[in-house]
Amino acid sequence: MPNASAISNSPLIAATVRETQQLVRAQKQAGKRVGLVPTMGALHAGHLSLVKRSQSECDFTVVSIFVNPKQFSPAEDFAKYPRNLEADVAQLAVLGVPLVFAPEASEMYPPGFGTSVELNGLAEPWEGALRPGHFRGVATVVMKLFQIAPADRAYFGRKDYQQALAVRRMVADLNLPIEIVVCPTVRDADGLALSSRNVYLTAEQRQHALVLPRSLQFAREMFDAGERNAAKICEAMRRMITNEPDVQMDYATVADAETLAELNHIETSAVALVAAHVGQTRLIDNELFGPSERN
Amino acid sequence: MPNASAISNSPLIAATVRETQQLVRAQKQAGKRVGLVPTMGALHAGHLSLVKRSQSECDFTVVSIFVNPKQFSPAEDFAKYPRNLEADVAQLAVLGVPLVFAPEASEMYPPGFGTSVELNGLAEPWEGALRPGHFRGVATVVMKLFQIAPADRAYFGRKDYQQALAVRRMVADLNLPIEIVVCPTVRDADGLALSSRNVYLTAEQRQHALVLPRSLQFAREMFDAGERNAAKICEAMRRMITNEPDVQMDYATVADAETLAELNHIETSAVALVAAHVGQTRLIDNELFGPSERN
Fold first, then answer.
1. Looking at CA atoms only, how far is residue B173 from chain A in angstroms?
2. Which chain B residues are closer than 8 Å to A175 by Cβ?
3. Once rounded to an integer, what is the mean pLDDT over residues A147-176?
4. Beta bridge pairs of residue A193
5. Mutate which: B109, B138, B174, B259, vs A, most A CBs within 10 A
6. Does A17 sit within 8 Å of B176, measured CB to CB?
7. Residue A173 is nearest to which of B115, B118, B173, comparing CB atoms?
8. CA dihedral A169, A175, A178, A181 (to 10 degrees)
9. Per-residue pLDDT averaged across B286-291, rounded?
10. Checking DSSP bridges between strand B270-278 and strand B247-255, what pairing results, if any?
């Protein structure tokens, strides 16, 4: 007898904007609370935690699976980004997700497409500086997804801290009628934050990659011990990361948790942000200090 | 006894995003079809024709009145743009409009605001080339208004031809659930297209400004007589406009009615677009040829 949790109905997989809009609007018109989990597929337990959170708060959960070309720069890993729709859908079926929106790029960006959403301020430092056009691509596709699947709430992971802040900024600035819920980072037993890109790592690279969560853990211990000199915390993180073999640090910083401006001194809340290449694989991670921890 | 049409109820004037969203959503939830007429105030018969069209097609019409600073460049007439909320509201009361959204700039663009909507392609030539940032400002505010007053249809005047096309492009690209209705240009008896900026003209300047509709009328007569050489039509319009005293031509062109690319030969549809300064006042006008005339 198969495991009971595997006998779920498969979700409906909608490939078109029109079908998805119709299905989601019908739910809203029936008074259902709709949750949206935007993903690029290659689902892991982090994504599934967002789905479960949505299911606990909403009546109807839509998961979008779309590897968005506009948020990759030409030098990045768009072509080799992991894709496995069948395995993704199987995981969502187990959770009982009723609707997956999985469009082709031509459905999202038909010929003549010429509109983008730009974010100033929050989207400029850190990931924005190192990945030109990345947040424009993110904001544009998220705006579209919010129109295609007009949910009451949308769920994002805190691992992509700057992305979550940028999406919240866009929602506030453009008066979008949706609530952004940011969920805790899910980690493997060794401490590495779950990421679809972790599959790129060799076993040896993975050991080196652990310097990222270790540096953040060290920063957290300094903060918990009373250290409020942000530069000292940064310096400790940077030393750990730059001393690790096969790891090229992009940045390690302690920034204001709301504005992302680099801090000299931690007053109330702060976020430690790290990004590095481990071999060819780019990884990011972060740790929140202070009152925002329970965001 | 006062004129019956003047005994209408005054519209509710909402100054906040929140109140407007609540009022419009309540209408939608009650199954009403909502129409939105976005304006910068200084209402004239052109605006009122949009309101009447909305009233003939929708159950509930919202008019927004907001002189949007983001669509003016520093050299333009933001500070002196005509404003008369009381007179505007009186005109809308006569028509029985129930809701006017009239926010302050600080309500639309609070501190920290940092999001904009960018349009490539359609927004680049003509007005886009001469008014850098103009269509970014238009697209951003229109996007916000569509979220603040989530209407089924929004009404724009064909006088601002490129703007209407750009808004349609944004709506299509971002999958916004709203229909854009473009209404015919309303003209004064002398032929000048109605514009809130016409009040800037002296009597003498107004006579000179008539070269714009006259040049378009001449272009129409050439087209109706069978002329399909777009360059010849352009040349005739340009000669008329440049020969007019006190008129500085910005452009006069015959362009594809959908892409706005300048045409050498008119195949099916085309639009003649003109823009000029008359004294310090910048005016635009246009004329559609071919099947798109009935748009």
1. 6
2. 17, 21, 144, 147-148
3. 98
4. A187
5. B174
6. no
7. B115
8. 20
9. 90
10. antiparallel
Place of tokens 């976020």: A271
Nearest CA in chain B to A107: B173
Burial of residue A31, with CB atoms counted within 10 A of its CB: 0-12 exposed, 13-18 middle, 19 or more buried: exposed
A47 belongs to the catalytic site: yes
Q: Please state, for a pLDDT cut of 70, what percent of chain A lies above it.
A: 96
- Give the three-state DSSP class for B192: coil
- Report the residue count for chain B: 295
CB contact under 8 A, A119 and B115: yes
b/e burial code for range B171-209 (CB count within 10 A of at least 16 → b): bebbbbebebbbbebbeeeeebbbbbbbebbeeebbbbb
- Which of A22, A173, A259 to substitute to test the interface with B, most B CBs within 10 Å? A173
CA–CA gap between residue B184 and residue B49 (Å, rounded): 9
C-beta neighbour count of A153 within 10 angstroms: 18
- Residue A161 is encoded by which pair of tokens? 């801290």
Rounded-to-integer distance, Cα B55 and Cα B44, Å: 17
Neighbour count for residue B19 (Cβ, 10 Å): 16
Other Cβ atoms less than 10 A from the Cβ of A176: the count is: 20
Cβ–Cβ below 8 Å for A147 and B176: yes
- B68-87 pLDDT tens trace: 999 999 999 999 999 999 99
Which residue has better confidence, A49 or A6? Answer: A49
Q: Of the residues B44, B47, B208, B265, which is catalytic?
A: B47
Token readout for B198 is 């016409």
Closest CB to A174 among B112, B144, B169 = B144
The count of CB pairs under 8 A between chains A and B is 80
Cα–Cα distance for residue pair B219/B254, rounded to 1 Å? 9
The answer to whether B254 touches B271, Cβ cutoff 8 Å, is: yes
**Strand, helix or coil at B245?**
coil
**A6 pLDDT exceeds 70?**
no
Are B121 and A143 a contacting pair at CB < 8 A? no
Q: A125-152 pLDDT, tens per residue?
A: 999 999 999 999 999 999 999 999 999 9
Domains of chain A plus CATH, in order, are: 4-183 (3.40.50.620), 196-288 (3.30.1300.10)
What 3-state DSSP class applies to B258?
coil
Is the model's pTM score more than 0.90?
A: yes
Residues of B in contact with A177 (CB under 8 A): 21, 25, 147, 150
Q: Which of A114, A118, A174 lies closest to B169 in CB terms?
A: A114
- Tell me phi and psi for residue B268, to 5 degrees: -120, -85
Q: Would you state the pLDDT for residue B168? A: 98
- Measured CA to CA, the distance from residue A287 to residue A269 in angstroms comes to 11
